[in-house]
């Protein structure tokens, strides 16, 4: 058996950033051949993945990227096992690579499909396996999505909640789009507009309110206005974003704030890590 020098172990460890004992064992198995030892270390990834397959990956972060002209956005949920790893530079770097490829590449329907793509000349799956090899945790590209603009987004400071808000209107950068995304994370609406509600339910409520107000003896010329006001409350109770009081200026609705900037609400997607 070839004698493995401390210098050889040190040199390979510096190249791979792997634990000392794993590096030494690989060199021993390779008979001191560094290139062969590196291949042995790479081949261990499959075993690490299988060993931790049943572990829970409940930590991680959500990453968002937006094109400068606001025409598109992408969101990726990247999960791991422990909170410290979710803040590790290598984990964060891969998360950014994943979301930027999702934004600027051909897109993907699943995390597995995204990992097969190449970012900055390196296959994302190779970077993923390198992360597994160095850290030894379970990692999952849990969700991926791409959105058409104009868009605004907000990520909570812990990276565990994020929202992409889509508007109708000019393709321009406007802080109100981010403000609405932040509003969504805070107030958690269910629908973007009243068009998403059951229209038969709306008409039934309109008819009920109309009859109720007529029966109260209100003048006929103000009944429609009163009904509209009460319907707005009905929509807010249903969780309609457009009708909610805007978090930064409760005197106005989200719809009014957006219209003042030339936009209309279209859709939103809010993710919470693990949900």
Topology readout:
Layout: H1 6-16, H2 20-29, H3 34-43, H4 45-51, E1 59-66, E2 72-80, H5 83-86, H6 89-104, H7 111-115, E3 118-119, E4 122-123, H8 124-135, E5 140-148, E6 151-155, E7 161-168, H9 175-187, H10 199-215, H11 220-237, E8 245-246, E9 249-253, H12 254-260, E10 264-272
Antiparallel strand pairs: 1-2, 2-5, 3-4, 6-7, 7-10, 8-9
Helix pairs in contact: 1-2, 2-3, 4-8, 6-8, 10-11
Would you give an account of this structure?
With 275 residues, the protein is an alpha+beta fold. Among the domains are: 6-43; 59-148, Tetrahydropterin Synthase, Chain A (2-Layer Sandwich). It is built from twelve helices and ten strands. Strands 1-2-5 form a three-stranded antiparallel β-sheet. The protein has a three-stranded antiparallel β-sheet with strand order 6-7-10, with helices on one face. Helix 10 (199-215) crosses helix 11 (220-237).
Keywords:
275 residues, alpha+beta, Tetrahydropterin Synthase, Chain A, three-stranded antiparallel β-sheet, 12 helices, elongated
Brief sketch in words of this structure:
The chain has 275 residues and is an alpha+beta fold. It has helices at 6-16, 20-29, 34-43, 45-51, 83-86, 89-104, 111-115, 124-135, 175-187, 199-215, 220-237, 254-260; strands at 59-66, 72-80, 118-119, 122-123, 140-148, 151-155, 161-168, 245-246, 249-253, 264-272.
What composes the largest sheet? Answer: 3 strands, antiparallel
CATH architecture designation of the domain at 59-148: 2-Layer Sandwich
Structure class: alpha+beta
Distance between the termini: 52 Å
Q: Find the count of extended strands (DSSP E, 2+ residues).
A: 10
In DSSP terms (H or I, runs of 4 or more residues), the helix count works out at 12
Can you identify the CATH class of the domain at 59-148?
Alpha Beta
Task: Output the helix-strand order.
Answer: HHHHEEHHHEEHEEEHHHEEHE
CATH topology of the domain at 59-148: Tetrahydropterin Synthase, Chain A
The order of strands across the largest sheet is 1-2-5
Question: What portion of the residues fall into strands of 2 or more residues?
Answer: 15-25%
Q: Tell me the radius of gyration.
A: 27 Å
Q: How helical, in percent, are the residues?
A: 40-55%
Shape: elongated
Name of the CATH homologous superfamily of the domain at 59-148 = Elongation factor Ts, dimerisation domain
